Amino acid sequence: MMTKEQIAQRIAKELKDGMYVNLGIGIPTLVANYIPNDIEVVFQSENGLLGMGPFPFEGEEDADLINAGKQTITTLPGSSIFDSATSFGMIRSQKVDLTILGAMEVSENGDIANWKIPGKMVKGMGGAMDLVASAKNIIVAMQHCSKDGKSKLLKSCSLPLTGIRCVQKIVSDLAVLEITPQGFVLLERAPGVSVEYIQERTEGRMEIRGEVPEITF
User: Fold this and answer.
1) d(C-alpha 108, C-alpha 204), whole Å
2) N or C: which end of the chain has fewer CB within 10 A?
3) Dihedral angle at the C-alpha atoms of 83, 86, 88, 90, nearest 10 degrees?
4) What is the C-alpha to C-alpha distance for residues 38 and 60, in angstroms, rounded to an integer?
5) Domain ranges of the chain
6) Residues in CB range of 104: below 8 A, 6 or more apart
7) How far does Cα 146 stand from its chain's mean position?
8) 46 is catalytic
9) In 10 A of CB 73, how many CB atoms?
10) Which long-range contacts (CB under 8 A, 24 or more apart) does 67-75 make?
11) Domain spanning 4-170 has what CATH number?
12) Which tens digit of pLDDT belongs to each residue from 92-118?
């Protein structure tokens, strides 16, 4: 199985030069560490920032510079800071080319649940609903199974939904999958992981189309 860093590294291969990219909380924030050297992307944070840089070194943090997950960040030359209303205007008008989110569940038709577990305290959905409703392209970074071994790639989500039919691709610790009208399509598998192993751990419909290569880094 892949580590969180390897999931982020694989997702970074999806980035294209000139993209405006929103990174969700958790594994998605690690994608910024693996940007290919030959491209330039601009990271957008929904609390009001374009041009987000890497995480600061210890002792160099600025408490006034945070991302949507309240982590301290840095800014790059040419970055811009503005209010959250302007930021969500960018999101809702589809100015963001790619959104990378974490998820607790994804269904075979592209529904995503990533904001609430019933019975647990939450502060609210935050910007997730706007992102999934407006994004041109959504990639989910997630664990394939829960801690007790149950699949998180399902026929239908059991948790409260964040968005409906909006996810295009999933990179889990086991595989890269595309979502199509026929369900999940297995594109790549984690190094050393068999197709059969992935099938056993995917509750939703999953198609195998020919030889499935291993992910390379």
Assistant:
1) 5
2) C
3) -140
4) 28
5) 4-170
6) 113, 114, 117, 142, 152, 159
7) 17
8) yes
9) 20
10) 67/23, 67/29, 68/24, 68/25, 68/126, 68/127, 69/25, 69/26, 69/29, 71/29, 73/45, 73/49, 75/49, 75/51
11) 3.40.1080.10
12) 999 999 999 999 999 999 999 998 877
What confidence tens digit (pLDDT) does each residue in 14-26 have? 999 999 999 988 8
- 119: region left, alpha or beta (phi > 0 left; psi from -120 to 50 alpha): left
At 88, list the tokens.
């969500």
pLDDT higher than threshold 90 for residue 13? yes
Tokens for 125? 């959905």
CA 151/CA 30 separation, integer angstroms: 24
- CA-to-CA separations, 107 to 14, 30, 31, 156, 209, in angstroms, rounded: 21, 24, 23, 5, 20
Annotated catalytic residue, options 5, 14, 40, 46: 46
Return the HEC string of 108-171. Answer: CCCCEECCCCCCCCCCCCCCHHHHHHHCCCEEEEECCECCCCCECEECCCCCCCCECCCCCEEE
- pTM confidence score: 0.93
